[in-house]
């Protein structure tokens, strides 16, 4: 619960920064090795999800300490406030992450709910959901009440109100 609560605190930071409120903590052997939140709007990079940011932190850590990156990831447990999206679930699977705990499901883009990325070709990481789901969902509701000031302008064409005179 401790690491999920920390992930929720990171999600709150994301909400305050006008980001989709997702926080993530990577743990190895009971020790936190990475933590992050969504930074998509902040960086103007659509791939800067909390999980990807944590992966980058671990890769940098491994490079600095000359650790074998592949073996390092095999014992990592991920705590994330929202079910990883398809992109993040695929990245976690590719790195042989041991286990993922998430707060609330991601019914639109979930890497288990929408497309079970974790089970494609080979068995993947252990996945457990609904860890403090009400808290995680409440943050998402707060975010989606507002508008995203960094969202691209809609490309949907609007109907013209111009009338044609038939005389």
Q: Would you mind describing this structure in some detail?
A:
Helix content is 37%, strand content 17%. The protein has one domain: Cytidine Deaminase, domain 2 (3-Layer(aba) Sandwich). With 167 residues, it is α/β, with parallel strands linked by helices. A hairpin with a 2-residue loop joins strand 1 and strand 2. The protein contains 6 helices and 5 strands. Helix 1 packs parallel to helix 6. Strands 2-1-3-4-5 form a 5-stranded mixed β-sheet. 35% of the residues are buried. The model has no long low-confidence stretch (mean pLDDT 87).
* Total number of domains: 1
**Spatial order of the strands in the main sheet?**
2-1-3-4-5
For the termini, the CA-CA separation is 74 Å
Percentage of residues assigned to helices: 25-40%
CATH class: Alpha Beta
Give keywords.
CMP_dCMP_dom; CMP/dCMP-type deaminase domain-containing protein; about 170 residues; five-stranded mixed beta sheet; Cytidine_deaminase-like; 6 helices; alpha/beta; Cytidine Deaminase, domain 2
Quickly describe the structure.
The chain has helices at residues 2-16, 40-43, 50-65, 69-73, 86-94, 133-145; strands at residues 23-28, 31-37, 76-82, 99-104, 126-128. The chain has 167 residues and is an alpha/beta fold. This is CMP/dCMP-type deaminase domain-containing protein.
Strand-helix topology:
Blueprint: H1 2-16, E1 23-28, E2 31-37, H2 40-43, H3 50-65, H4 69-73, E3 76-82, H5 86-94, E4 99-104, E5 126-128, H6 133-145
Helix pairs in contact: 1-6
């Amino acid at each position: 619960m401790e690491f999920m609560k920390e992930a929720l605190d990171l999600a709150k930071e994301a909400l305050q920064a006008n980001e989709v409120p997702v926080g993530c903590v990577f743990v190895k052997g009971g020790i936190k090795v990475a933590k992050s939140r969504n930074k998509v709007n902040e960086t103007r990079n659509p791939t800067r999800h909390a999980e990807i940011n944590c992966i980058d932190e671990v890769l940098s850590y491994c490079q600095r300490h000359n650790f074998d990156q592949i073996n390092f990831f095999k014992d990592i447990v991920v705590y994330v406030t929202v079910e990883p999206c398809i992109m993040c679930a695929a990245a976690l699977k590719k790195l042989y992450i041991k286990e993922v705990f998430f707060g609330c499901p991601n019914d639109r883009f979930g890497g288990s709910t929408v497309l079970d990325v974790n089970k494609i070709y080979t068995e993947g990481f252990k996945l457990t959901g609904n860890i403090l789901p009400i808290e995680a969902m409440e943050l998402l509701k707060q975010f989606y009440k507002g508008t995203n000031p960094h969202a691209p302008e809609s490309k949907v064409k609007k109907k013209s109100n111009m009338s044609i005179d038939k005389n």
